[in-house]
Specification:
The chain is 40% helix and 24% strand. The protein is α/β, with parallel strands linked by helices and 190 residues long. The protein has one domain (3-188): Pyruvate-ferredoxin Oxidoreductase, domain 3. Helix 5 packs across helix 8. It is globular, with a radius of gyration of 16 Å. The two termini are 24 Å apart. The model has no long low-confidence stretch (mean pLDDT 90).
Amino acid sequence: MNSMNILIVGVGGQGTLLASKLMGKIFIDSGFDVKVSEVHGMSQRGGSVVTYVRAGEKVFSPVIDLGEADMIISFEALESARWLPYLKKGGTIISNTAQIDPMPVIMGNAQYPENVLGRIQDLGVKVVSADALSLAEQAGSAKAVNIVLLAIAAKELGISKEECLEAIRATVPQKTIEVNEKAFELGYNI
């Protein structure tokens, strides 16, 4: 790997920041220079949240511009569409199939678009999707959606299970290690 640009996107409170911290640690532990930039937006109000993770031999800026992301890890289907312009040609979207209604939908001023991920695939984009919430719940906590998606991304990137599990054990609170390990296994083995 010469370099890797990853956008981690979701809605406030979904664990995107922990996922970016883990992804950064995995790359650092593999010997890469890493830059991470967090943009919280209206995260406390369920607004869009994005984190940039850049890794390579030498990385000078944490920012990923339009058309430069190798991968987008999306915690919510509509966020995949919102951030699609940042994906480079030949890039991959890893997405949770969950749908969280944005405020215009909640207020009845708009409808949630149908088949968001299918429409993105129709554009020729590689989309790997899973019901990460169900897998996280199966592991023991709905809060482990981020770990499920991280596992799917790690497998797609060819990162070993052991490297990721080490990073998880070193980063998450002790009392959540077992649930996070289960969530990672379920995501990695899809």
